[in-house]
Every structure is written in C-alpha cells, then in structure tokens.
Amino acid sequence: MPVIRFVREGRDVECFPGENLREVAMREGIQLYGLKGQLGNCGGCGQCVTCFVAVVADEGSQSLSVRTPVEEAKLRRRPQDWRLACQAMVERSVMVLTRPQVRLPDAPARLKAASEAPLPLGPTAWPALPETEEDLSEAATADEEG
Ligand code: FES
User: Which residues pair with 34 in a beta bridge?
Assistant: First the structure.
C-alpha cells in the first residue's frame, strides 16, 4: 500500500493506489483546512482552493496524479509543488505538508526527520481478486482463522 507521510501531523497513513488525497486525510482525521476552509469549503469540487498541500518528497516522482486543469488554473500563482488535495490521486508513497501557507514550527528539524525515514514505495495496483472456487474457499478460511 502506498504511504502518505503527513509531515505537520507526524503521521504515516496507508491508502490504496488511486485513492483521493483529501478523502484519505478526512478519513484519518487530518485537518487539511485553515480557518477559511473549515468555515466553508466546496466539498472536494476544486472550487474553494482551500485544501492546499505541498509535496515535500516524491518517491520515484509521479506519486500523485498529474495536475488537473482545475489545479493548473487555480494554482497559477502558487509554488509549483503545491497541490489541491481534492484533485490529487495517490499513486505511490508521498510526503506532504498540509496547510503549507501556515508556518511549520521547527520546520528544518521536522522536515529532516521526516525525510530520513524511508518511505515504502508500495504496490501500484489493487490486490488481485481470487480467481477460482478453491482460492475463494482458502480466502474464507484465512478470514475465519484470523
Ligand atoms: S476542497 Fe475545495 S478546492 Fe479542494
């Protein structure tokens, strides 16, 4: 599974390849929004421009899907490594800084610590489904056992 390392929160979170970064963050209780976004956001439509993340490290590059046309338009005057979490799909492990517009206390030390622990690349596809009756019964037995 790809791992998203949230530097500000000091957390690593696993997700499936292709999952939406905003949805994973929300599921895990990670705050993406500053005050404006907390008071009102577009719910992931790419219109409010409040779900910024900065890509700190990109294992093998292309860890997130390419910028969408919405991002190209809305992030024109922002740093090139910023993304809208609601528009980004996680393909491989990636390290991100939520709310990059807000100062990160003790930033150099925290970024260094986050960079020193290697990120697993993770598989790039969903687990294969069992194909035969025998595979299905083995999977069911494994689930019952533990
Ligand atoms: S949630 Fe509104 S732009 Fe991402």
Answer: none
Looking at every residue in the chain, the average pLDDT score rounds to 87
Q: What sign for the dihedral angle of Cα 25, 101, 48, 58?
A: negative
Confidence of residue 37 (pLDDT cuts 50, 70, 90): very high
Residue 60 scores a pLDDT above 80: no
Which CATH fold would you assign to the domain 3-145? Ubiquitin-like (UB roll) (3.10.20)
Does ligand 1 come within 6 angstroms of the Cβ of 25? no
Look up the pTM and report it.
Answer: 0.81
CB 84 less than 6 A from any atom of ligand 1: yes
Domain boundaries, the chain: 3-145
